[in-house]
Write a structure and sequence with these properties.
Length: 376
Amino acid sequence: MYRYLFLILQLTLSNPLFSQHEERQIKESLLNYIEGTSYNRRALIDKAFYSEANLYLENQEKGMRVVPVDTYMDWFKSNQGQFNGRVGNILSIDHFNTIATAKAEILIPAKNLRFVDMFLLKKIDNEWKIVSKSASSESSNLTEDRVLFVVSNAHFYGNSELPAGNSFSEIVIAYNTFKEAGYNVDFVSPKGGSIPIAYINTSNDMHKQYLYDLDFMYKLKHTKSPKEVLPENYKAIQYIGGGSAMFGVPENEEVQKIAMSIYEDHNGIISSVCHGTAGIVNLRTKDGEYLVKGKNVNGYPDVYERHDAEYYKEFPFNIQKTIEKHGGAFKFSPRNTEHVEIHGNLVTGQNYLSSRAVALEIIRKLKTGNVGALEE
């Protein structure tokens, strides 16, 4: 009996790993397609597609037409290796055994166009190949500019069994604000993969909009790991709050390096909201000083915490006291009010009510070219 139980447990544990392996291979095929069509690399396109694949495309002049993959590849035979203005991003992947469907977003900012590509893939001779593709387009203000959200994988407060999560309100309010302004948003977590979310209100229209948005929820289920992130691709980084933010993120050196590279090497913006400010307390500049030193900083005030509550006893440190210990000036307003502090390329907010204001300030700085200017 124990042998059978062991086999069942082994299968249960190994299946997710097998699934992740398959998804990585599917992703590799899709990335070959994206890079091949963005940089006119015919060999990569050829590697992504099954040799007899067809594309089902349409335009206003010719209507619906079936394009063999060989014909499609010829569209990218000129200017090999040169960027042609297409910016691609995988939106979702769903697979079962040897078949899969996937969706990708292709932006052409110069023409204010956004394409959504839908793929059918098949595992053939142990390789995932695109066997068909269709696409549709719309006008869009989205650009290649990106913002990186930092979230936590911590499901519990410390070593307790108290559930913790990333603030869904802070995520969707900021995400929606950036998307409306034309920015793409990616998510990174210390371990990558799925994250816990909290403070979901299904009576809130914006919450419902994103909770039932499969592409958005795919992003939360498949956050990037630090090793997948290139700092030069981002204009700003924002630390999301919620109880989970106190654990796993503040001490993660890989995330710290990403944040400071965006800030110092690429003149980007660091921001945080509510308990997300825990993520910036240990950031140091190249000269060894704490980032917060000499700056006004905002976050969730300790005075508003329930000090006798079990969750608070699990906190590894006090945000406000740590900011002050590291040379920063912690500023805050009355409970449940919006408050944003701006100090050069550091923008911090007090609570979820400040999420939109923080995002708008980042957008204002980026749009006006006011990054790097010190604001007292």
